[in-house]
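Possible regression after last week's pipeline update?

I re-ran a chain I had predicted before the update to compare outputs. Posting the input and the new output here so someone can diff against the archived version. Not blocking, just want to make sure nothing changed silently.
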Amino acid sequence: MNTLWQEIQNKMLRSGSKLNLLIGINIIIFLLINITDVLAKFLFHSPVIGYYSDEYLLLPAYLPKLLTHFWTPVTYMFMHADIWHVLINMLWFYWFGQIFEEYLGKKRTLGLYFMGGLAGAFIFVFCFNAVPFFTHSNAAAGNVLVGASASVMAITVATATLLPDYTIPLILIGPVKLKWLVLFFIALDFLGITGMNAGGELAHLGGALTGFLYIKQLQKGNDWIGNIAKLFKPKSKLKVVSNNTSKRTVSLPRQEEIDLILDKISQSGYDSLSKQEKEILFRASNNEG
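New output (post-update):
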């Protein structure tokens, strides 16, 4: 058991993969809530666990309730209705997430997961409170959103947008390009926006649009996730100041170079620096102050 738990910890926390971390969090939350719910019902005939998790962790469409449950646009994307819901979402996330991280690295998965989930939440709430099809029957009053589907859809569509001709084998069908597979599921989601799971389908489309726009902007050199991360990134305390206006100042390292080197140290350690980078850092420290 210890070996299994250590392996899970290594996968989630030490592999560097945000994909493994997110899948682990989703599964742990699902098991924690549902196991305790089953025990409460079995031993005490009490549905209290299920009631409170649904009441306080799912995303309501009803605006007055959403205002008092303002955290639910985040919590809903880690909740699932049943075992098949979480299983399908996590398998889909794993398959496409691996391709996503292989080509774009492991730093963007977490950001796009949240962006897709929040976009899905916005589309869900907006449509249920603004589109006549829903407002006519006051559908917002009794509808909630649950599941990581919008977040997973963002990763899925982003992967297909980046690699449209990437081919994967499907049982009974054979090799299929990602663009056709994703277009098929987007079409299904669109056809379902007036059906029984209209809220879920709308959230899927919100996540899909986010994934598509993110890759298109990234291809233009605009990394939304990177730009957001920079807002929370602490600035380097190492400054290079010199009163000497002679030619010697030309050889002083630029602050941008120093910041990049310090970032590399924080991620990989000092030993990962090249000889040239160590020399730049040495010259900068000698001229500090």
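Follow-up from reviewer: compared with the archived run. Residues 234-286 form one domain. Marking as no regression found.
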